Structure formats: C-alpha cells, structure tokens
Amino acid sequence: MYLRRNSLRKTLARILLVVLVLFSTVEVLHVRQSLARAEGDSTAVHAPGPERIFIAGIFWNNEAILRSSLNAALVDLVEHLGPHNVFISVHESGSWDNTKDALRELDEAFERIGADRRITTSNATHLDEISVESKGEGWVDTPQGQREMRRIPYLAKQRNIGLEPLAELAERGVQFEKVLFINDVVFSTEDALQLLDTNGGEYAAACSMDFKNPPYFYDTFALRDSEGNEHLMPTWPYFRSRVSRDAMSRYVPVPVSSCWNGMVAMPAQVFTGPSALRFRGIPDSLAAAHLEGSECCLIHADNPFSRSKGVFVNPRVRVGYTSEAYEAMRNGEVTLSSIIIGLRLWENRIRRWTTTPMLKTRAVASRLQRWYEDDPTNEEPGGFCLINEMQVLRKIGWAHV
C-alpha cells in the first residue's frame, strides 16, 4: 500500500512538472512572437502627420546631456515635424553647471531653422528659493522641527512656467493638437513619432519607458498600473495588475493609471481654456501627514480624459538617461532569451502570490482618511499617487525627511 501511494505521488509530481513545463513553454513562445512583431514594427517609417506639436521641457544641471545628444535630438525632431508645426518651450532655473550656455546654443540652432520657441533661464538657485522669508504655501513642518520648502510644488511651478506660452498662444488663436514633454533623456526622432502615434494618437497620455541602469526601469515615482498599484518588479514585465501585465507581455500600449518616464505626449486641449490643467502638489495639510505624490502622477488624476481615453505606457519607446543606457535598452527587450523570459514571468507570478500592496498602502490610506475626517471639504483625487514620504528642497538637490 505504501509503495503504491509513493508511486502515485511520484506519478502525479511528474504529470504536474510536465504540465508546468508545457504551460511555461507556450507562455514564453507567445511572448517571443509578440517581441518579434515589435522588432519588425520598429523598423517602420513614420511620416510626419499634420498635427501641430507643443514641445515642453524643464532642465536643471543638464549641460552634459544637452551638448552630447539632447540639443541635436530636439533640432532633428523639429526639422522632421516641420518648424512651422512646432513651438518649443524650455525653462531652466538655478543650474550651477553650463546648462544656460548649452540652451543658448540650442536657441541659436532653432533660430537657424526658423523654429518658434521660448527658452527662459533663471539665476534663482535652490538656496535662493529656500532662503525667502515668506514660508507659506508650498512649505511644510518637518519631523526635525523645521519649516522647509516642499520639492513637488516647486517642480510643479517650474513645469507650469514651461506651459505659459501654450496658454498665451491659445488666446491668440494658435492651436496645437499635442503637448510633448521631454525630460533630460537620450531619444531619437523615431522614438518621439512612435510615442505620438501610440494607440493611433487616441489617449489622455502616452509615456515612453525610461532607463538609467538597464535593465532596471527608472522612474517609478509616477508609475501606477491599471489598478493604481506601484510597480511589482523593476524588470520586465514590471506590473501587478493583469491588464497592464498582459499588455506588456504582448508589447502593445499598456493601460496604466499614471506614468511619466522620460517622454510624455498629451492632448494640448487639456492645458488650455477656462478649466486648463496645471501641475500641482498635494495640499500642504496632507503633506504634513508625511505623505507626498508626484506632480507627474497628479496631472493624470486631474485629467478628465484619463478614464475615457486612457493613459498608456508604450513599451516600444525606450529612452535613456545616458547614451549607454539608451543603446543598451533600445533593442534590449527583443533580444531577451527564452530562459530569462520564463524566469521573469515566474518571478512576477511568485511576487504576486507572496506579496500584497496592502502592506504599503495601509498607512497611506489611514492618514488620507484622517485628513478627510479633519475637514469634510478636503478633496484629493490623486489618492493612488500618494506614498509614505516627505520630500523637501535643499540648496543642492532635495532630501527625504
């Protein structure tokens, strides 16, 4: 009897092992087919469309990447789109390297090709910002007993300066179809065109994927999957939610709740008119509960089209914060071996089975609830953006406190 039971257990174990191997093989083959299609599509030539594009960027201490690649990439993109179809708005503030000189060179390059633009610079440093006497809105009392300037409202202000020409042009009847936000990244014209064409151009927002230390995804502060969860793992397929994970495995536009990730396209209409969107931070009273949310996440929470048109990560558009990172990831995902694909799929599966976002979100949810109870008029649509952090500006960069 014992021998028969032992034999039955071994037989069942073998059957289970065979089923798992077959399941994993089919799963990996499906992913590889999708990756192969993505590689083929990436060679397609994208003709410039009739849309007018407003390009916006804020830069700080970015001389190196501006001079090594970004200036040339921006000029190439504008020439491809047609200078008459583009307005470029760039804002810089308080850099201590030669970012201002690099932007003057960019301004001269745009002048040569006849591109309309506004490139502004400011000598106000972080030290100037945090040394003001008035410490009202945008400041918070930290656990160290000091009143310090919050990082996110400061960043939101800089981004909104970059949007000012868009509103001014709209008042004069000059309209744009898309706003393309570009961070300090290495990218190509093909990357930008493919991003703009995400989902056939129908979206509330479309984001690239960004990398600094490949193969690890970089900007996770603003990224939330279709269910509002933070990323599950720093490598492919990244997400916890089935909808986001499955789309990533098929290499089609990935539905998410929020993203930014180096380069973002959004409809220009949401930034003009009487209900124009602007970047913001969470209220100071909520930040005082040791909470924070990225301005680049909150913009999607505030966007009325996020639910109806969707927010997407385009897995075919990969940018880098260095040339090395860009080259490593430009075609890196399509060269993943079958073994690595299988291992990462199982890593994702095991992480989902053994972890829960509730452990991280419980403290955030309870503090947010207390904030609602303290004042019934309090409102924060970007609850899914919140994390258990307090971020303040310092004379050199910023800090967690």
TrEMBL record:
<dbReference type="InterPro" id="IPR021047">
    <property type="entry name" value="Mannosyltransferase_CMT1"/>
</dbReference>
<protein>
    <submittedName>
        <fullName>Putative polysaccharide export protein</fullName>
    </submittedName>
</protein>
<dbReference type="Pfam" id="PF11735">
    <property type="entry name" value="CAP59_mtransfer"/>
</dbReference>
